[in-house]
Amino acid sequence: MKTTLTPLMVVQPAFGDRWSWFDRFCLWYPPAWLILFNRHWQHYHDDPDGWNWLEYALFLVPAGFYVALLIRWLRLGCRSPRPSDQPVDLQYQQAFRDEILVPIVDRYFRAELHQAENLPAAGSILVTLNHAGMCFPWDFIALGVLLGRERDWTVQPVAHELFFDHPWLRWWLPSGWSQVLGGVRAEREPFAEAIATLADTPNQALLYAPEGWRGLAKGWRHRYQLTTFDPSFVRLCDRHQVPILPTICIGSENLHPFTVNLAKLGRWLKLPLFPISPLVVAFVLFPSLGVWAVRSRLHYFIQPIERLDQDSFQSTSDAYAWAQRLRSKLQAAIDRLRQ
User: Fold this and answer.
1) What is the pLDDT of residues 181-192, one digit of tens each?
2) Burial of 272 per CB tally in 10 Å (0-12, 13-18, 19+)
């Protein structure tokens, strides 16, 4: 892969060769995870609006992020980073997975895949997952890494539009980051197009949380209680004859424990949710922790594949009933696994 060198990138390590002592420090020191993500992007992309070394250093001290934010805003001429509409980059996806995500998923979250015999030997698939929510979606990311390694699939997560173009996120992560890494907007048309693509593309997996934002907002108290499944994925999979692979994650609730959602404050800030937990003091002092999560051990249990009979759902109510039966089946499996 050709790398364009900038003055910032000259002093950066070759991520593909090994991690430097500073990279290992960034993994060990939670406020520095945001540095690791942005530096990796800048190693492969020209990013004149991105963070620089002085601003990175400020991430590491309490409340320094706010000073770094002000410095960057002044450096950019008192404007926000420019939005970017970049295409999916499979080469960068591979580099980011191998050089950043694999060490984090293996050493920090200690993710494990169970019942892998239920994985299909070939073909593309929609993977459903009970989503912990309330923090950066590490449960989805870790599953994507494990599936890509187990079956060499190209894995795409379905994510809220917040992760694509929210003006706040552009201050944390590079513009276009989610698109380049293959994220699919959790909106009707992009989701439908992604499932249609599965039918015509070999060795591809789409990660989807059928609880939607109801699952993200349920909080710690109901962390293992599945909420109502949105039936749209059922009708789309039926229409395009895409099999469904239900997956259960145990341990994801510990990524951001004891969390509640302040819904009214989230609406006022134009956010889909506003999680608060005992970690809120740390987040106030170190906003760069937004891409971090508490060390956990993530266990993924692959359930038997669900294949739909073509044109078996004549109405939305049929799809809704099937989706809720699946939810009940997975709820029973979750209850068994927790015991």
Assistant:
1) 989 988 889 999
2) middle
